[in-house]
Amino acid sequence: MVIENSTAEDIDEILRLYKIATVFQQTKGSVGWPVFERSLVEREIKELHQWKLTEQDAIACVWATTFTDPLIWEERNEDPSVYIHRIAVNPSFRGKNLVMQMMDWAKNYALANNKKKLRLDTVGENKGLIKHYTNCGFNFLGLSKLKNTNGLPTHYENATVSLFELEVN
């Protein structure tokens, strides 16, 4: 297993994994992701915020990170945190606890960047993901109705999100 920044050569695969994840979300009755613009992924790659976990020379999992997320976390955004977005697992690698492996990496990434918390969100009350993320060590902080979604992807419009946090000290 290798975790590293994604490259421009990975963009087609990242977008493919996002599309697969969206279909999977919809089969589970969850709010599906919109089609993400290629330019978003390109920007995240340039800013070194798009990541991949590779195994056997294949991309097994992708995600994005930020150090700020004020529209979702509002006043809590002031806490020094790493925010994790759009985790998408290659179906060929499901069931291998990749998210747990990614979280172990993310804890070290947070510490290396002087951050005290890992945070993530999901749209709606997805009981399966709540259980999964709490099994990965996250505290489920509850549901939060978003007040301002200008600038967020469309699946956040008028959304209630599940918030998760993990202390990394």
List the helices and strands and how they pair.
Layout: E1 2-5, H1 11-27, H2 38-46, E2 50-55, E3 58-66, H3 70-73, E4 81-89, H4 98-112, E5 117-123, H5 127-135, E6 139-145, E7 160-167
Parallel strand pairs: 4-5
Antiparallel strand pairs: 1-2, 2-3, 3-4, 5-7, 6-7
Portion in beta strands: 25-35%
What is the ordering of alpha helices and beta strands?
EHHEEHEHEHEE
Report the principal-axis shape: globular
CATH level 4 superfamily? Gcn5-related N-acetyltransferase (GNAT)
Mean pLDDT: 93
Rg from C-alpha positions? 15 Å
Instruction: Identify the CATH class.
Output: Alpha Beta
Distance between the termini: 24 Å
Question: What is the tally of beta strands?
Answer: 7
Fraction of helical residues: 25-40%
Report on the biggest sheet: 7 strands, mixed
Strands in their spatial order, largest beta sheet: 1-2-3-4-5-7-6
